[in-house]
Amino acid sequence: MMVFKAGEQYPLADTRGKQGFFFDYSEDNIAKLTCCFPNMTKRESDLILEEHGTVGLFMYQGVIFFTAKFGPVDGDAAYHIGMHEHPEQITVENPPDGTGMPLYIFAVDSATNILIGTRLCGLGTRFTRDFRKMTEEQRRMTFDEPTFIQSVMECQNRWTTKDLHRMATTYKLGTKEGEHPLDVLEFPH
User: pLDDT tens digit string along 67-81?
Assistant: First the structure.
């Protein structure tokens, strides 16, 4: 079991020197969004961890761009199953109606790699099915890392994060009454 505690080092990656949003999906049907800002302010972390917000999916030349907007804080992250060591193990389950995959959101101060807080949201049926369709499309393509990087650079040079979020199919993130950011989060891994 992996444990994430606010105020401690972020265990998934060394984020020092990085800024932006990083999205990943693992073979255990878990989506993770890491939001990194050096010297993250309380306002930034509060928006990421408490704002209802929206997430989006946009595909460009075989690359999935995951976008997120929490009030004025927004970001995008490129994703391809071919980046995994064992892409054949990455499958997105087709969810029953009314369900979807979990999204773990991490707010990290990338000046220190300290986890500020976490949040768990449910991504709905429509998002999960759309993401599944996109990853299956990626599976049918040949993955080449230099081409992937070139496509990401082209896309980011052509459009801003706001443009990508506007062009993406978007999905609302809600917070149920009583839901609060988590100081400790555990999930099997």
Answer: 999 999 999 999 999
Query: Which stretches of the chain drop beneath a pLDDT of 70?
Result: 174-189
Residue 176 makes CB contacts below 8 A (sequence gap 6+) with none
Instruction: Find the DSSP H helices in the chain.
Output: 42-50, 125-139, 145-158, 161-167
**C-alpha closest to that of 32 among 92, 118, 121, 104:** 104
CA–CA dist 93, 28 (Å, integer): 10
Annotated domain spans of the chain: 2-172
pTM of the predicted protein model: 0.90
- What element of type H or E holds 12? none
Structure tokens at 102: 């979990």
Reading the block at residue 84, the tokens are 């995994």
Distance in angstroms (rounded) separating the CA atoms of residues 94 and 155: 29
How many alpha carbons lie under 13 Å from residue 16 in its C-beta half-sphere?
6
